[in-house]
């Protein structure tokens, strides 16, 4: 049985496309700088934000259901109490993994992810895991 750190690294090694729920328009916030760092490392970032139109040079979607392509990982920058609803949406679009950023935990989101067969990570910074593991993607 792999631990959460091993799961986190495996998710990033296998993933190309990351939908970021709550990607911020404010470059000073981690909900902007972390996805920007992942994009710089070669990952495809798909922003999900209720008010912005373009973030990190990508078209913003209002919800996960609005994304017209497959998503490998749903990265969550929303309060813990909203994580279960995001987990349900991630399961509905067939995401392979649900990742709750550092400081975000949810037993309900974990249960939803596991029931849907998604890999699950919580309370970890995606950019830190990527940097420590030295994971980069080649842009196609």
UniProtKB/TrEMBL annotation:
Coiled coil (UniProt feature): none
Residue ranges annotated for the CoA-binding domain, each copy included: 12-104
InterPro entries linked: CoA-bd, NAD(P)-bd_dom_sf
The protein, known as: CoA-binding domain-containing protein
Species in which this protein is naturally found: Prauserella shujinwangii
């Amino acid at each position: 049985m792999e631990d959460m750190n091993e799961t986190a690294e495996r998710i990033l090694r296998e993933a190309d496309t990351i939908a970021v729920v709550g990607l911020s328009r404010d470059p000073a916030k981690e909900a902007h700088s972390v996805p920007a760092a992942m994009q710089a490392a070669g990952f495809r970032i798909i922003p999900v934000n209720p008010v912005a139109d373009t973030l990190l040079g990508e078209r913003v979607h209002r919800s996960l259901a609005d994304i017209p392509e497959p998503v490998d990982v749903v990265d969550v920058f929303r309060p813990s109490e909203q994580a279960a609803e995001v987990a349900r949406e991630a399961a509905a679009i067939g995401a392979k993994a649900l990742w709750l950023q550092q400081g975000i935990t949810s037993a309900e989101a974990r249960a939803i992810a596991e029931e849907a067969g998604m890999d699950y990570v919580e309370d970890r910074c995606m950019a830190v895991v990527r940097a420590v593991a030295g994971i980069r993607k080649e842009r196609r």
